[in-house]
Design a protein that fits this description.
The chain has about 190 residues and is of the alpha/beta class. The longest helix is centred in the first third of the chain and has 17 residues. The chain has a five-stranded mixed β-sheet with strand order 2-3-4-1-5. Strand 2 and strand 3 form a beta hairpin. Helix content is about 40%, strand content about 15%. The radius of gyration is 19 Å and the shape is globular.
Length: about 190
């Protein structure tokens, strides 16, 4: 009887996950193909940005900060400055700070947790300025050290998070960022991946 109840509970839980009645970062950490894309769409204040950062931070906790590279993008330099103000207190949600017992600091566009590099923040509007810079690190994915416990190469991850990339109504429409968000995003993916 207990097995039947547990089986029914698990089925209901999977049905909730499938119908998106609640958000969880678990699917983001469970796939192994080379490149995965997740798109979270919804009204403001629903937790999309929190969810987008939850899985990479969990990956840092599980596999080590040195085995994760997280790049966080927003549309304009103005929004990046606002996120990074006050030691990046607007970037990492208090929910995540409490959940992972984080101590956030920043230096320039890099955010740290307890002195360990967590993520880098970039503006899509500045993509043209970054062209030609070497954010790509060949050795990060291709020359992974061997895990002494398993004898296999350690797992490493690159996370690209594009947050709030649509120009809000009434915002300046003449900036480079509003002309082609997709083209700017492509420039960054070319210099990172």
């Amino acid at each position: 009887a207990v097995k039947k109840v547990l089986k029914e509970f698990r089925k209901k839980k999977k049905d909730k996950e499938r119908t998106s009645l609640y958000l969880t970062p678990h699917p983001m950490m469970g796939y192994d193909p080379r490149y995965i894309h997740f798109i979270f769409a919804g009204a403001r204040g629903r937790g999309k940005s929190v969810l987008a950062l939850d899985a990479p931070i969990a990956s840092c906790e599980k596999y080590g900060y040195e085995n994760n590279k997280i790049f966080f993008f927003r549309l304009s330099d103005t929004s990046i400055k606002a996120l990074l103000a006050n030691s990046a207190s607007n970037l990492i949600d208090p929910i995540l700070i409490d959940k992972y017992n984080m101590e956030i600091t920043r230096k320039a566009n890099t955010v740290y947790n307890k002195g360990k590099k967590l993520l880098e923040v970039y503006s899509l509007a500045s993509a043209a300025k970054m062209k030609g810079q070497a954010l790509y690190d060949y050795g990060f994915l291709n020359n992974r050290p061997i895990d002494p416990k398993t004898g296999k190469p350690i797992k490493r991850f690159i996370w690209l998070i594009l947050d709030e990339f649509q120009m809000a109504e009434g915002m300046e429409k003449n900036s480079i960022a509003s002309k082609s968000t997709a083209a700017l995003w492509r420039m960054y993916t070319e210099i990172i991946l």
